[in-house]
Amino acid sequence: MEIILTPFAWLLKAFYSVCGSYGLALVFFAVVVKVVLFPLSIKSKRSMIQMNILQGQIQKLQKQYGKDKQRYNLEVQKLYQKEKINPMGGCLWSLIPLIVLMILYPIIREPIHYMMGINDANALNAIAQTVGWNTHAVDMGWIREASDTFTNSGYNQLYLASLINENNLSAVKQAVTAAGGVGQNVFSINFSLLGLVDLSQVPQLQFWTVVGGFGLFLLPVISAATGVLFSLISMKTNAINKQSAQATNGTARTMLIISPLISLWIGFTMPAALCLYWVANNLLSMLQEFLCGRILKKDYEEAARKQAERERLEKEEEKEERRRKAEERARRIEEEKLNRGKKKKAEKKREDEEKVPGVVKEYSRVGIRQYARGRAYDPYRFSEDGPTCYPGQEPIFPKKTEKAAPPEEEPAVSQETPQLEAAPEVSAPAADTPAAGDGETKE
After folding, report:
1. Tens digit of each residue's pLDDT (9 = 90 or more) over 304-329
2. Residue 114 to residues 1, 151, 359: CA-CA distances in angstroms?
3. Are residues 82 and 24 part of one domain?
């Protein structure tokens, strides 16, 4: 942290040595920070414009892969890589002023350490004893009760630096040198802003209890007001790029409320010097938005043109989709009408066939019977001829043929005994053999 904070402390000290006012030094410090970060702000604005141009393609990907989140994120990442866009570029650089404010906070809280290079406890205690820290701290309400040694905590070092003036400066340098520090580095800091506000103090809601408290009270209020004004101007600037949806969404409205609340919190909980820097930062941000709008005017117009073209194409696609659905609906209705006509014709044909006697409807035949639905059914199963097969095929079992006999022989055949009828059947195979007598002897 020492390495990071030291260059900023040198810059603030350099501005103070030039203008002789701590408040003006903070304003110049904010100007330098804005100038250094201005190219990054331009880049952030361009990134937001490119992101806005890609919104149409991102919405298509969302419709196409909305249910598959992993595939959707992968396709969006490929789109960003193809267009060479950093999705965090639009909001990343807007956080840098907050980071600078966090860096500036310890420098303002410990000016003797970072601006004078004195952080030794003995040297700080020597300064406190020389300027009468105990008496002034108790009288001004910085500490509740006096102590023999100086405590380097909270804003005590900032209050101690405000007690160093031209009257006791030489004595303080001698005391610091005697304590083993570098007395020549000590100097008096003018914390007065236009003779109205002491920037080393913390603003209070009960401003009548503090000397110059009304001016301190106004600083947080001005800071909150400038924060709201900057948010509104930023929304107007984005509206040039047809980002009205972004300007009216819930996030923007939330930030419009949170931004002044943060300003009030900074103003009433931290030294007025930080509040002054926040006011200067808001005013410079408004100027930056105006300059960005001028510089990126062509980019904004191109983005507006592309968005208008995208909206036109989306309307045409929506119109084409409605037309296609209407044609599909009409085609289905026509098919249903044709199917109903064919069905009526088939039913009429069936009815006509049923009126004709002796006509068998082949489309309903499965078994032997005209309307049979089971293949096992056989109406001739128990007939004299035995089971039959499907029409047009040979029977499963051949039918028994009747022997033709003279009418007069019918009674004679019926009078024969069963033994005489069976004899020819038994002896028939033996008639062809030469040893027929053997068969008779055996019988």
Report:
1. 787 778 778 878 888 888 899 999 98
2. 11, 17, 115
3. yes
Q: Tokens representing 86?
A: 């950093």
Q: What is the pLDDT of residues 192-226, one digit of tens each?
A: 888 788 888 888 887 776 767 788 888 889 988 98
| Ramachandran class of 133: left when φ > 0, alpha when ψ lies in -120 to 50, beta otherwise | alpha
Separation of alpha carbons 43 and 50, rounded Å: 11
Cα–Cα distance measured from residue 213 to residue 203, given in angstroms and rounded to the nearest whole number:
7
36-40, 122-126, 155-159, 206-210 — which is least confidently predicted?
206-210
The answer to whether residue 413 is domain-embedded is: no
pTM score above 0.85: no
In total, how many domains does the chain have? 2
Residue 83 shares a structural domain with residue 224:
yes
- Which tokens go with 359? 């006509």
Q: Which candidate, 55, 61, 103, places its Cα nearest to that of 78?
A: 61
194 is in which domain, residue-wise? Answer: 2-115+189-295
Q: Per the structure block, which two tokens stand in for 257?
A: 């409320």
What b/e sequence results for 352-382 when a residue is b if at least 16 CB atoms lie within 10 Å of its CB, and e otherwise? eeeeeeeeeeeeeeeebeeeeeeeeebeeee
Pull the structure tokens for residue 200.
Answer: 């080393």
137 or 390: which leads in pLDDT: 137
How would residue 442 be classed by pLDDT, with cut points 50, 70 and 90?
A: very low
d(CA 213, CA 141): 13
Residue with tokens 């630096």: 161
Please classify residue 327 by burial: count the beta carbons closer than 10 Å to its beta carbon, then call 0-12 exposed, 13-18 middle and 19+ buried: exposed
> Could you tell me if 259 and 227 are in contact, meaning their C-beta atoms sit under 8 angstroms apart?
yes
Based on C-alpha coordinates, what's the Rg of the chain?
A: 54
